Amino acid sequence: MNAAVSEEIVNKRGKVSSPVWQFFGYYKSDRSQTNVVSKLCKTVVPAKTGNTTNLMYHLSRAHPLEHSRIQQTTSVAATPHKQQITMERYSASVPYDKESKRYKDITEAVAYFSVYI
Ligand SMILES: [Zn+2]
Description:
Pfam families: zf-BED. GO terms for molecular function: zinc ion binding. The protein has 2 domains: 9-74, no CATH class; 76-117. The protein contains 3 helices and 4 strands, in the order ββββααα. It has helices at 53-62, 64-74, 78-115, and strands spanning 9-10, 24-27, 36-38, 44-45. Strands 1-2-3-4 form a 4-stranded antiparallel beta sheet. Strand 2 (24-27) and strand 3 form a beta hairpin.
């Protein structure tokens, strides 16, 4: 551990164009914000200003978990998949509801009958 490694990483100044920036910043001493640093592994990632291609590449290669998290928040393909699962669960639950209702009726009928024994 040296001073440079423990140095604070600050967020990119101004409006960020991509959610990938939550995992990247600049060393506080880098006042001109020229060297992009990975917050996760404190590695300087060569990237031109505003270009997130290399940042995405670094994330996918070095931090696949965080990369997949970003993919989930930005990808629209994840939504129909979730809806499909919900529909499958709903249709599967219908016969069970009928069965439990019938079972409940039988139970109540038996209980009712038992009173008059
Ligand atoms: Zn990293």
